[in-house]
Amino acid sequence: MCSPHRRPLLVVALLCALTAPSARPAGAAEDDGAGDTAISARVARLYQDAAVATQRYEKGRQEAEAQRARTRRLEALLERERRELGVLRDGLGRIARAQYRSGGGLPLTAQIVLARSPDELMRGQHLFSQESLVLDNALDRSRRAEARLTADEARAASAWRSLRKRSTELAAMKGALQRLLEEARWQLQGRADAAAAAGACRGAVRLDQPPARPASAWVAPVADYVLSAGFGSGGTRWANRHTGQDFAVPIGTPVRAVGAGRVVRVSCGGPFGMEVVIEHAGGYWTQYAHLAAVAVDQGERVTTGQWIGQSGTTGNSTGPHLHLEVRVTPEAGSAVDPVPWLTARGVPLGR
Question: Which of 101, 143, 166, 309 lies at a 20 to 30 A Cα distance from 124?
Answer without folding.
Answer: 143
